Amino acid sequence: MRKLPAAAQEERRRQVIGLRESGLTYDAIAAQVGLTRTGVFDICRRFAEQGQAGLASGPRGPAPGTGRFLQVEQEAQVRALIRRHTPDELGLPFALWSRAAVRELIERHCGVRLAVRTMSTYLARWGFTAQKPLRRAYEQSPKAVRRWLRQDYPAIVAQARGEKGTIFWGDETGSRSDDVRGRSFAPRGRTPVVRPSHKRAGLGLISAVTNKGELRWMVLEGALKAPSLIRFLTRLIQDANGKVFLIWDNLPVHRARAVQDWLTEHPGQIEVFHLPSYSPELNPDEGLNADLKHAVTRKPPARSKPALKPAVISHMRRLAKSPGRIRSYFAHPSFRYAA
C-alpha cells in the first residue's frame, strides 16, 4: 500500500469503504484487496470520523521541525551571527564561513556538536549558498560608508542640482604589459601558456565619468603627480557645462598643496568631495577601470609601452563615443545609488 502513488492509495481506500458498505467483514475485505485486517479497520474508522477527507493521503514522515538538534531560537541566532560577522570576528580559526566553521560556531554558541555533513542540511534550509565573497578593506569604516550613502552623497546631489552643476566621479588606474586575465580553451590536462614580457611596461590613466554617460580621460606616462592632475582638472572644467562637482578617493596627490591651491583659485568652476577611505566599491569610475583592463588584455600581449599605449587610447576613444556603456557602470549594484 505504501509503495503506491497517492491517487492509487485513495482509490484503494474507497474500494475498502465500498466493500464494507456492501456488508463484507473486515477479514473478507482484507483478503480481497490485499491488506491486513488492521489496515482495513483503520480505513473504516478514519472514514467514520472524517468522511471523505479521511480517505485522502497526507504527508509522511515526522512533522516539520521535529527531530532537530537546535531550537528555532538557536537557529535564528546562528543565522544572524553568520550574516553580520566573519568567523575571525567571533574568535573562530577560519577565514570564511565553511561547514566546519558553522559547526564550530554552533558548538560554541549552542553547546551542540553536530557532524560536518549535517551543516549542509541546515545551511540549505536557511537559504545559505556557497559564494565568492566580495573584498572590503579591513580599515574601511562601515559607519562612514552608511553616512556617505544616507547623508553626504544626497547632500552633494542637492547642491549640484541647486547650482545646475554636473557630478563627475574621478579615479586613476594603470595598465601593465604583463597583465593576463580571463580563461583560454585547451585540451583537457594541458594548461594553456601565454608569454608576456617580463620587462614590465606600465601606463597610467586618469578619468572621470558621469551617470549621463560623459567621459573625460588623459593618459599618463608615469605616476600621477600634482602637475599632471592639475592639467587634467583644467581640461575638465573647460569642457564642462556648468560647475563641476568632482568625487574621488583619498589618494595623497589629491590633497597635494599645489592641487589645493589650484582648487582655491577656481571655486566657482569646481568643487571636490572625498569618498570614505578604503571604499573603491562606491566609485562608479572603477567600472571603467575594469572595462579598460579587460579590453586591453583580450588583445595580443603588448610587450612594450609603445605597443601598450595605442591599445589603451583606442579603447578609451571607443568608450568616449559610447555613453550607453558608461551609463551601464552605474547599473552595477555597488554603484546603483549614484545612477
Automatic annotation (TrEMBL):
InterPro entries: Homeodomain-like_sf, InsJ-like_HTH, RNaseH_sf, Tc1-like_DDE_dom, Transpos_IS630-like, Winged_HTH_dom. It holds the Pfam family HTH_28. GO terms for molecular function: nucleic acid binding. Signal peptide: none annotated. Residues 94-151 form the Winged helix-turn helix domain. Residues 12-62 form the Insertion element IS150 protein InsJ-like helix-turn-helix domain. This is Transposase. Residues 167-308 form the Tc1-like transposase DDE domain. It comes from Microvirga lotononidis. Gene3D superfamilies: Ribonuclease H-like superfamily/Ribonuclease H (3.30.420.10).
